[in-house]
């Protein structure tokens, strides 16, 4: 049965060509950043598993958007104690930290053109129902604002200007990489063409805006893909937002989002709104762009000079809250501290891997030599069992690395595997000593094997249960390298149980039938004379036991 | 090696018996001294926490030629921090590097320092490894380690109480705390740096120490089954026999456990120079050694002490004492022989506590009690 299992595993490795374990970044070089979620100052919200999961998927999307191959984003731990670990091979640290350091890539950009999300050359007019949702307005905030109460001017223009009508209709390319990045803020003909071709209903293309720099003019889609925009360079950076809250302002009925800028942001926002105010639609709008997608594009009703603004429109409570969250934290539902960031150069990783392998081989050899010296031929059983256990462990590590579980073997994990050599070998020692005890009692070998086994297996199970408890608790409660170690320990404990029950025991039973062991050769490790057994074995007793 | 086999056989039969349980006061005293040393060095010297706990930045520049002075001077030109960096040379047989340790830096400063150091040491910046730990991160790790420890202890008490009994759980816990305090004390005394890897090591020791204890306790449980029905041995006697019977296994287990760890330690310390492997192996090496000691010298004697307080066990002790007294009167010469042979290992002082089931009757022991030896074999609690 075990043979079948091993064969299946080997077969799988050959067929799927997964023959090497997934190595952690500390063994092959790369950057790891550990993010500690925190509740932002002044907030009372709790860190929930939901918000962590949400943050993980958003960071994953952001890292992917950055074009990093093999990036891995995962949460470790549960609930309020969870952290998010981002691992990126082969990217320099600054790039990665820049990417994550910002709570979001959020910015306000003036709208130059707005149209429906798909290139529709014959019928460029978007349906009003779709874009009508974008009917949001920005105005000075009554409470915090320096400006007078800006009346709520209903926006009459329902349909965004469809100009320019694309003359040509290039088929939407699959890649979202713009050819016109680094345009320095100029709306080049290429950008114009790109805008015309952009199909926001295609998932691949929707995040096109993320590939531009802040100083570029960009093309971008709305979040739902219903509209697309041609936008100017970033006028106000998201980092300059001091606070954003959702609520129903006094004396009003609808939900609104109140915004407060810091001093730099106040000035930039004042300049922008002054400029936009009075322009003809849609150029009197600014777009709130998050990670390259337009979250909202409110119209400016009047210049906003006081550093406080409110965005109104027919928001639902959910919409208003979401927008406020986005403005405040970026897309992430949580704020983060960078707990640890580590860059391991490929050379160091290689050294550490080699060190681990040397230590493992050395440890294995030492254990084998000791066992051979002490248990003689019996030790061969232990050595074979260790080899089988090692093969199964290797296969499992490879399998888990290739599977969706994505287990990566870190240096701590390697150390765990090496330490486990001792624990695995101990199971054999427990069994062998029991057999010897039985032989000392004058039992024949075959009886001794069975009697010894029935007791040894209880001890082995009890002792392995302790190891397993330790491994599981460590794994669940810890972060980072401790987890890798705990996983390795738990895995090898399970493998140990498997091997002892399905390989070692049957093998010993099989060997006991050979003359070499049964005759009590001094080299068998089970010689009754050497063990100081009571001799001679009483034949009647032995017969009775065997019957 | 065959000598050890013989020795194992003698231990198993009880021919040779080391009085672990009876002399518990000696072992307790020894452990008390060790604990005292450990605790006082913890109090007076304290632990040497690595930057993972304190927060800070570490740069490792691999170079065969770069000097500490070069790195220090280069760092000074960056003006990133007012505090003097700690610059050390780390060398193993295969690698040599310059290690620069500073306060926690922001990403821009980190890049600046990495580039400057690489230039000064004339290596590519890609080969420089960096690690920055935020100030609150270490606290988080410590908190998690303590939570893990608490939950682990609780789970173990529950598990041992179910599979064995609460007294065994209590004795195992005492041994566990003993091991951890001594290991941590050794860290404080020697001044080894405490890193997350050492914490892993200590947590693993917990598992290992318990694992060892469980194997001994399993044998104790086996030996003491149905004990109160007879009057041959007290609980302490049976427990002591169990320790002796598993002694060879304990030694083998420790050796086999220590060999791979020693390999790790060797590679970590001499080939790589420093890092995770060394930190981990060091904690394990110390811990496994202490753990083996405690499962023999602390856990089992303590368990026997707890058990002897049970009324049933006290009654048993009285019966055994009465029986021995009458036996001694009846078989003076035999007892004298037994005491003489025991002197080699346990010493005469150990005699009252040491069971002598004497299966040696067959192999040339005292011949005048064939009946006893037969009953002894039957009674010898093993199954």
Detailed description of the structure:
The complex is a heterodimer of chains A (547) and B (383). Chain A has 547 residues and is an alpha+beta fold. Chain A folds into three domains: 30-102, 2-Layer Sandwich (Alpha-Beta Plaits); 106-327, no CATH class; 345-546, Multidrug efflux transporter AcrB transmembrane fold, CATH 1.20.1640. Chain A is built from 17 helices and 15 strands. In chain A, the strands form three sheets. In chain A, strands 4-7-6-12-11 form a five-stranded mixed beta barrel. In chain A, helix 12 runs parallel beside helix 14 (481-511). Chain B starts with a helix and ends with a helix. The longest helix of chain B is centred in the C-terminal third of the chain and has 32 residues, at 276-307. Chain B has helices at 2-13, 24-44, 51-54, 68-78, 107-120, 135-163, 166-190, 196-224, 235-245, 247-271, 276-307, 311-330, 332-342, 370-379, and strands at 48-49, 56-62, 86-91, 96-102, 129-133, 193-194. Helix content of chain B is 66%, strand content 8%. Strand 15 (335-344) of chain A pairs antiparallel with strand 5 of chain B, so a sheet runs across the interface.
């Amino acid at each position: 049965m075990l043979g079948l299992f091993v064969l299946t595993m080997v077969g799988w490795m050959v067929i799927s060509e997964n023959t090497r374990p997934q190595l952690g970044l500390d063994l092959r070089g790369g950057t790891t950043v550990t993010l500690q979620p925190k509740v932002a100052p002044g907030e009372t919200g709790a860190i929930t598993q939901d918000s962590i999961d949400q943050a993980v998927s958003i960071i994953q999307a952001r890292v992917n958007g950055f074009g990093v191959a093999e990036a891995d984003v995962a949460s470790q731990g549960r609930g309020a104690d969870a952290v998010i670990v981002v691992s990126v091979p082969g990217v320099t640290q600054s790039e990665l930290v820049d990417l994550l350091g910002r709570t979001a890539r959020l910015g306000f950009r003036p709208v130059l053109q707005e149209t429906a999300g798909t290139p529709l050359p014959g019928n460029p007019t978007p349906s009003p129902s779709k874009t009508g949702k974008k009917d949001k307005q920005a105005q000075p905030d009554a409470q915090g604002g320096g400006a007078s109460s800006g009346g709520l001017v209903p926006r009459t223009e329902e349909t965004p200007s469809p100009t320019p009508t694309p003359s040509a209709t290039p088929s939407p390319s699959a890649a979202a990489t713009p050819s016109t990045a680094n345009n320095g803020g100029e709306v080049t003909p290429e950008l114009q063409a790109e805008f015309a071709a952009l199909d926001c209903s295609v998932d691949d293309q929707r995040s096109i805006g993320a590939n531009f720099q802040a100083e570029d003019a960009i093309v971008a889609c709305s979040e739902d893909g219903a509209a697309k925009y041609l936008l100017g360079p970033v006028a106000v950076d998201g980092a300059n937002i001091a606070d954003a809250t959702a609520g129903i302002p006094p004396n009003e009925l609808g939900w609104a989002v109140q915004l407060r800028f810091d001093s730099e942001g106040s000035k930039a926002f004042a300049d922008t709104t002054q400029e936009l105010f009075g322009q003809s639609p849609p150029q009197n709008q600014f777009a709130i762009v998050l990670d390259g997608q337009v979250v909202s594009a409110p119209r400016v009703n009047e210049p906003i000079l006081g550093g406080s603004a409110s965005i109104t429109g027919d928001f639902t409570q959910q919409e208003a809250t979401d927008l406020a969250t986005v403005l405040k934290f970026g897309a992430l539902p949580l704020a983060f501290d960078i707990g640890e960031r580590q860059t391991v150069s490929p050379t160091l990783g290689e050294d550490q891997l080699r060190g681990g392998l040397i230590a493992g081989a050395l440890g294995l050899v030492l254990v084998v030599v000791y066992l051979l010296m002490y248990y003689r031929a019996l030790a061969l059983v232990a050595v074979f069992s260790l080899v089988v256990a090692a093969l199964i462990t290797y296969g499992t590590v490879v399998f888990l690395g290739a599977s969706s579980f994505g287990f990566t073997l870190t240096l701590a994990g390697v150390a765990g595997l090496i330490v486990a050599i001792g624990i695995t070998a101990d199971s054999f020692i427990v069994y062998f000593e029991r057999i010897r005890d039985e032989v000392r009692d004058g039992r024949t070998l075959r009886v001794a094997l069975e009697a010894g086994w029935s007791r040894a297996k209880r001890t082995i199970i009890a002792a392995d249960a302790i190891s397993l408890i330790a491994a599981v608790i460590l794994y669940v409660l810890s972060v980072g390298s401790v987890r890798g170690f705990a996983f390795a320990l738990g895995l090898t404990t399970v493998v140990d149980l498997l091997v002892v029950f399905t390989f070692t025991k049957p093998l010993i039973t099989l060997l006991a039938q050979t003359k070499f062991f049964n005759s009590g050769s001094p080299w068998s490790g089970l010689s009754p004379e050497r063990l100081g057994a009571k001799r001679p074995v009483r034949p009647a007793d032995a017969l009775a036991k065997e019957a | 090696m065959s000598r050890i086999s013989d020795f194992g056989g003698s231990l198993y039969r009880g021919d040779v018996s080391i009085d672990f349980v009876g002399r518990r006061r000696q072992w307790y005293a020894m452990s008390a001294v060790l604990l005292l040393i450990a605790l006082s060095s913890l109090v007076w010297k304290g632990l040497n926490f690595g930057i993972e706990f304190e927060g800070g930045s570490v740069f490792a520049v691999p170079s065969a030629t770069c000097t500490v002075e070069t790195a220090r001077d280069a760092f000074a030109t960056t003006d990133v921090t007012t505090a003097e960096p700690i610059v050390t040379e780390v060398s193993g047989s295969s690698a040599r590097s310059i290690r620069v340790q500073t306060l926690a830096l922001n990403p821009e400063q980190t890049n600046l320092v990495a580039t400057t150091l690489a230039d000064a040491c004339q290596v590519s910046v890609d080969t420089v490894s960096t690690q920055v730990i935020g100030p609150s991160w270490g606290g988080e790790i410590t908190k998690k380690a303590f939570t893990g420890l608490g939950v682990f202890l609780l789970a173990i008490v529950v598990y041992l109480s179910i599979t064995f009994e609460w007294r065994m759980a209590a004795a195992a816990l005492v041994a566990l705390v003993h091991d951890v305090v001594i290991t941590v004390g050794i860290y404080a005394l020697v001044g080894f740096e405490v890193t997350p890897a050492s914490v892993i090591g200590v947590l693993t020791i917990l598992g290992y120490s318990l694992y060892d204890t469980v194997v001994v306790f399993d044998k104790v449980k086996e030996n003491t089954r149905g004990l109160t029905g007879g009057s041959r041995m007290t609980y302490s006697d049976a427990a002591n026999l169990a320790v002796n019977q598993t002694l060879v296994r304990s030694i083998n287990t420790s050796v086999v456990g220590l060999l791979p760890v020693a390999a790790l330690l060797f590679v970590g310390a001499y080939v790589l120079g420093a890092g995770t492997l060394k930190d981990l192996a060091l904690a394990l090496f110390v811990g496994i050694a202490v753990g083996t000691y405690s499962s023999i010298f602390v856990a089992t004697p303590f368990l026997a002490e707890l058990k002897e307080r049970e009324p049933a066990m006290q009654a048993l002790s009285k019966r055994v004492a009465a029986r021995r007294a009458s036996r001694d009167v009846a078989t003076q010469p035999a007892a004298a022989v037994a005491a003489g042979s025991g002197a080699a290992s346990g010493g005469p002082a150990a005699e009252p506590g040491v069971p002598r089931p004497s299966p040696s009757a067959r192999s040339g022991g005292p011949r005048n009690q064939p009946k006893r030896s037969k009953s002894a074999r039957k009674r010898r609690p093993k199954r």
